[in-house]
Amino acid sequence: MTEHAGEIVGKARRVIEAYAALGLKIATAESCTGGMIAAALTDIAGSSAVFERGFVTYSNEAKIAMIGVDPASLRADGAVSEAVARQMAEGALRAADADVTVSVTGIAGPAGGSAAKPVGLVHFACARGGVTRHLEKRFGDLGRSAIRGASVSVALDLLLEAVRDQPAC
Predict the structure, then answer these.
(1) Distance from C-alpha of 41 to C-alpha of 15, rounded to nearest angstrom
(2) Has residue 136 been placed in a domain?
(3) Is the residue at 82 inside a domain?
(4) What CATH number does residue 101 fall under?
(5) How far apart are alpha carbons 78 and 72 in whole angstroms?
(6) Domain presence at residue 169
(7) Are 103 and 92 in contact (CB under 8 A)?
(8) If we measure between CA atoms, which residue out of 158, 39, 144 comes closest to residue 102?
(9) How many structural domains is the chain composed of?
(10) What is the pLDDT of residues 140-165, one digit of tens each?
(11) Which of 80, 40, 46 is closest to 63 using CA atoms?
């Protein structure tokens, strides 16, 4: 994540400032980033006014137990899918006292990819006010650290977009 470190700190600071100004709370639901989004946000002074909680749901079992992802979706679509990313964000919104949630699930590598779901494929979702936005990124096989860092950056962008002149994600 080092190549993205300065960019991530700046984005995380903007997220904390924007949400604090609006009195909104954030929760995260993370798989391939393993809590890196939560860490980026809580590295910023004043984050306690904004960051409600983070769910690190690395395993399918954690996705089901902690945030209510449907086991049938995991079987049918796989953990790295639009359906699961959406359910992660929506489940985190139900499970937390938050106004906006962001989720990330992907294949950071070096193993685990396939032709249909290559290393570098990451699905994101942002939920707010009954609206869930999905975003798919194909970063390519940049290496595990770079994929995870890029994913944190995109998740922070989604959180910023969720409050930038719009009522929902």
Answers:
(1) 8
(2) yes
(3) yes
(4) 3.90.950.20
(5) 9
(6) no
(7) yes
(8) 158
(9) 1
(10) 999 999 999 999 999 999 999 999 86
(11) 80
Instruction: Say if 168 falls within a structural domain.
Output: no
Start-to-end Cα distance in the chain:
26
Domain holding 143, by residue range, is: 2-163
Amino acid at 131: V
CA atoms within 13 A on the CB side of 154: 25
Q: Are 14 and 44 a contacting pair, CB within 8 Å?
A: no
- Count the residues in the chain: 169
pLDDT tens digits, one per residue of 20-79: 999 999 999 999 999 999 999 999 999 999 999 999 999 999 999 999 999 999 999 999
Q: Tell me the DSSP string of the chain.
A: -GGGHHHHHHHHHHHHHHHHHHT--EEEEESTTTTHHHHHHHTSTTGGGTEEEEEE--SHHHHHHHH---HHHHHHH-SSSHHHHHHHHHHHHHHSS-SEEEEEEE--SSS---SSS-TTEEEEEEEETTEEEEEEEE--S--HHHHHHHHHHHHHHHHHHHHSSSS--
